[in-house]
Amino acid sequence: MANIRQVADKAGVSIGTVSRVLNNKPGVGKKTREHVLAVAHELGYSPSKYSPNISPEVTHLGFLSSFRTITTNPFYADVFHGVEQACQDLHINLSVSSLSVENHQLQRIPRLVKDNYINGLVVAGGVISPEIFITLSKLSHVPMTLVDNHFDLCPWDTVMTDNVEGARLAVEHLVSKGHRHIAMLGGPNHPSIVERRTGYKNTLRKHGFTPLLIAPPEIRSDITGLTPTGGACGVVEMLQQVPQTTAIFCSNDEQAVGALKKLQELGYAVPDDFSLVGFDNTHMVQFTSPPVTTVSVDRATMGRIAVQLLLDRIQFPDRAVTKATIGVNLVERGSVAAPRNHKLAA
User: Would the pTM count as exceeding 0.70?
Assistant: First the structure.
C-alpha cells in the first residue's frame, strides 16, 4: 500500500503538489494534476474521506502548539485549520491542547499526551525545542509530525516552508527595484527564522552587498521577537545603527506591521522613504496602509500534509523520515518602490 511520499517520488513532484492535487486545491497545472492523479490511482493511494488506506484503528489525533502560537498567531491558526479540515474529511476526531513553554522548558504535560487515547500527534511551532519533542515522544508513545520545526538528525516527519527560497524572492525583488542597503529584522533562533536569515544573507552576498541584520534583545526574544513589538523595536535600532538603509525585510508579517506603524509614527513614508517586505502573507498585511508586499505561505496545506504524513507513519512505522517542504511565492502590494527622496541607493 503506497504512501504520499511514494506518490510524490514516482510522479516527480513535491509532497505539497500531491497534497494540493488530492485536495483539489488551485496552483497546479492541468498536465501535472492529471499526472499526479494517474500515479496515485496506479499506486492505490487516495487519502480522502472514502479512502481505504486509513486504518479503522485511527480514530483520534492530537494537535499541540505553544500557548501563544495556538491562540494569537495567525500563521499557526491557519495551520490548525488545515489539520482540522483534513481530520473532518477523514472522519477522525481531533483534540487540541497547548504547551506551556518557558526558556525552552516544558512547564506542564498536556492531558492528551498523558492519557494515551490518541493515535498520533501534530506538533506545531518553532519555539518548541528538540528536548521537548523527545519528552513528548517518550510520554505519548505515538507517532508525531512536526510543523514549522526541524533540527539536525530529527527522527520525526516534518513539514516546513521553503524559507530560504522565500527570503531569496523578497531580496531579489528589492534589488530589482534598485535597493542596495537592505536590512533584515531578525528574530529568535527558530528553525524557520534561521533559514530566512540564511536566504537573506546568501542573496545579498551573491549581489556583492553587505547584509544588515538587526537583532536587538526584543527581536531575539521568543515572546516579542516575531510580533509588532519586535518590528517596532527593530526599526528604532535600524535607524540608529544603519541609517543608510533604504529597504527592510521582516522575518514575518507581524514584525512588518509593527515596523510600518513605527516608521509612520516617526514621520517616514512607506514606500517613499523605506520599502518594506514581510513573510507569510497573513490577512493582517492586506489591510495596512499601504498593503505590505510579502512572501506567501500555504499554511493550511502545511496542516493537511502534516495529517497525511502522520497517517502514513501510523501505517508504515518503519518508512524513511520525510521532510516535506512547501513552496512559496511573492505577493506584490504597495510597500515597495525604487529608493528615492532622502534615501538614495549607492
Answer: yes
What whole-number distance in Å separates Cα of residue 121 and Cα of residue 54?
16
Report the candidate in 137, 77, 126 with the shortest Cα–Cα distance to residue 104. 126
> Strands of 212-214's sheet, edge to edge?
212-214, 182-185, 247-250, 275-277
For 36-43, which contacts have Cβ atoms below 8 Å and span 24 or more sequence positions? 36/7, 36/11, 39/7, 39/10, 39/11, 40/2, 40/7, 40/11, 42/10, 43/2, 43/6, 43/7, 43/10
Instruction: List, for residues 50-96, the tens digit of each pLDDT value.
Output: 344 555 578 899 999 876 667 678 899 999 999 999 999 999 999 99
Ramachandran sector of residue 98 (left: φ over 0; alpha: ψ -120 to 50; beta: rest): beta
Query: What are the structural domains of the chain?
Result: 1-53 (1.10.260.40), 56-161+298-327 (3.40.50.2300), 163-296 (3.40.50.2300)
Q: In what order do the strands lie in the sheet with 323-326?
A: 93-99, 60-66, 120-124, 144-147, 157-161, 323-326
- DSSP secondary structure letter of residue 317: T
